[in-house]
Amino acid sequence: MQEEQTGVSLSEIGRVLRKRSVLIVLLSMIAAVVAAVIFAFWIDPAREDFVFVLRNGYSPPADLVTGENVRAAASDARFASLDVGKIEKGATFGRTETGGTLSLPGREFPDFETAWRFADALAEAAAERQAAAEAAGGTFLPDRVYGEVPFEEQLLLLSEEKEALLSRVDEWIRLLGGSYVAGGSTLAAVRAELLVTYADSVARSLSEELAESCYAPVKFLAERRARLTAEYEQNTRAAAAVGVAGETLAGLLARNAYIDYYLENTLTEDASRAFAARIETERASLAAAEERVSALASELYGEELARYTVESGERKGGISPVLAAAGAFLLTAVVCVVAFTAAERRREGG
Predict the structure, then answer these.
(1) Strand partners, 53
(2) Residue 269 near residue 259, CB atoms below 8 Å
(3) Fewer CB within 10 Å, N or C, the chain?
(4) Torsion of CA 258, 260, 265, 271, to 10 degrees
(5) Phi, psi (degrees; rounded to nearest 5) at 257
(6) pLDDT tens profile 192-241
(7) Which candidate, 176, 166, 191, 158, places its Cα nearest to that of 287?
(8) What is the pTM of this model?
């Protein structure tokens, strides 16, 4: 009895191909078209992500994918049909040394080009939001705050605010260079102007005069005068006491001489208002400098520092319809050859 053949020989495959080649090719092409359609419009979009490489070597936003940024980008009429909630939920962003990587869910976009345009809009929205935040992020205090604290603290506040402005400009110079032009001037020129605003010599002069004169804002005059008057009376009693050493007595009398001077000349409303006006002049100049630095922040972050550039993009995670069609064609062809070969063998055996 002849042993039943279990494999498929090359001669059998050749015979089937000669007899059924047209049908095999036709069936394979139909399968390829069906696979391409399925993967292009159904399976593939549901699994595919559009991944974009964004570049910015300065100090861009830490996260592009926030609800505010996504909604701002989607407000463009070009994206009216997109589901903002699903994009926000499916999108991810990761920072890199040179920028970041943005991944958008492919199923939420009609095509790759629309996703690229949305990535551009998202980067622009994030830059605008950070620019606005930086422009509003100054440390300058309103004038009413100055009236609530003694002159010593007011001078300290002025120095701190100037240092804060210089620190911001120095950071921009570090990132962009002193020759970078913004607001019609180089950053180096902006820094030079800041240096002469509430200059160190002026700050030192005011501080020394305040220490020598014991000025106080009108709000604090009564309390300061009462405290010094009490000290004057205590010193007078101590000086009159029997047995006070000569050195101690001289110190008490010298101190009372200063207190007399303060009460008569510097702890008056006129002197207080005059010194307050000088501080206000410096505060106003710093306030103007703050406005300029804020305007520069809006320009620099909106156009350069916070602006991501979409450098490249690619599809990831899905299967190309072309590859799906090719795979379907080959698989169908193999299945057809095997099936027709088996059918031929049964017919011959019957």
Answers:
(1) 101, 312
(2) no
(3) N
(4) 70
(5) -65, -40
(6) 999 999 999 999 999 999 999 999 999 999 999 999 999 999 989 888 87
(7) 158
(8) 0.64
